[in-house]
Amino acid sequence: MKLVRYGDIGAEKPGMFDASGTLRDLSAHVDDIAGDVLSDAGLERLRQLDPASLPAVDGTPRMGACVGGIGKFMCIGLNYADHAEETGNPFPDHPVLFMKANSAIIGPDDTVSMPRGSTSTDWEIELGVVIGKAAKYVSKEDALDHVAGYCICNDVSERHFQNNLTGTWTKGKSCDTFGPTGPWLVTRDEVEDVQNLSMWLDVNGKRMQTGNTSTMIFTVAEIIEHLSGLMTLHPGDVISTGTPPGVGMGMKPAPVYLKKGDVMELWIEGLGQQRQTVTEDA
Asked: Which of 29, 156, 194, 247 is most buried (most C-beta within 10 Å)?
C-alpha cells in the first residue's frame, strides 16, 4: 500500500493510492496515518478495504508528511561507504545517531526555507524507515518485523551550524523546513529488498547524488537492532538512514551550497519523488 496524508498544513487527511494511481480518502476508517494504524493489524485492516469503495479525491492536493504524530525523528550519519569516503571520515564502529527536531518536518513538495545567517545549506537524500511496532532489544534477524514501511527523507543540513557552532550536529539539522518526508509511506510488504534501492537527487536539473542502499555501512536491520538497545522505538518513530555521495559539502574543488530559488528533486526506487523550491527566512 501507498499511504499518504493530504491537504492543508495542519489539516491533513489520511489517504491511499489505488492500483490505478487514484488518491482515495481514508477518513471514514482512520483518523490519521499514525499510531496503531501503523501496526501489522492496523495495516491489515486497511488492506482489507476495497479501494473502489473509498471516495476519490479531486484535483491534486498538497501532500503532507506521510506519517502523522511522529514521536522521534532519528538520523544516522556517515552510513554510506562512498559518502564517508567523500567527506574524508573513517567508517564508524557503530551507527552515528543525531536527532532532527519534529518542527523541521514538512511535506515532500513544501518550500525549504534557509534560516537567517545561513551560508552553507546542503541536501541529503535518505531512505526513511517508519516504525510500526514497538521495538526494545530486538535482534537484526527480527528487526524488520517492527517496520511499518519506508519513505523518502531529505535531511537538509546547514553545514556551518552543524560543524562550527558549539554543540552537536542537531543545530544544523533541525532548522524549520529541514525535514521533507514522503510523499508516500510504502508498506514493507511492497519493498522486496530494502538493501537494494536506487536513489538520486538533482539540484536545478543537475544530478548531484546517485546511490543505492546496498552501500550502507549499517543495514536497516542493524540500525534498528542498535537503536532498540538504547531506547524503545515506538510506532510512528522515523529513522532517516544516511545519504550516498554527492552532497554539496563534498564537491570539488570547492563546496557548492543551496541558494534562494534553487529546486531540489529526489527519487528512491518504489518510494516516489519529492520536489522542493528553496527560499530564505525574512
From this structure: 156
Question: CA angle 259-263-268, nearest 5°?
Answer: 130
In contact, 242 and 213? CB cutoff 8 Å: no
Provide the 10 A C-beta neighbour count for residue 85: 14
pLDDT, one tens digit per residue, over 116-169 is 999 999 999 999 999 999 999 999 999 999 999 999 999 999 999 999 998 889
Return d(Cα 109, Cα 180) in angstroms, integer. Answer: 7
Backbone angles phi, psi at 54, to 5 degrees: -90, 140
CA distance 218 to 210: 18
Place of cell 518510494: 271
Q: What is the structure's pLDDT at 168?
A: 86
Alpha helix segments (H runs only) across the chain: 40-47, 81-87, 140-143, 159-164, 170-173, 220-228
The residue among 215, 203, 224, 226 whose CA lies nearest residue 277 is: 203
Q: What is the dihedral of CA 60, 66, 70, 72, to 10 degrees?
A: -130
Burial code (b: 16+ CB inside 10 Å, e: under 16) for 54-71 equals beebeeeeebbbbbbebb
The ranges of the chain with pLDDT < 50 are none
Per-residue model confidence (pLDDT) at position 214 = 97
Q: What is the CA radius of gyration of the chain?
A: 18
For the record, the C-alpha cell of 80 comes out as 554510506
CA distances from 157 to 79, 118, 149, 225 (A): 16, 10, 24, 26
Q: What residues contact residue 152 under an 8 Å CB cut-off, 6+ apart?
A: 108, 125, 126, 127, 128, 180, 181, 182, 183, 266, 267, 268, 271, 272, 273, 274
Nearest CA among 165, 157, 75, 155 for reference residue 122: 157
Instruction: Please tell me the pTM assigned to this model.
Output: 0.96
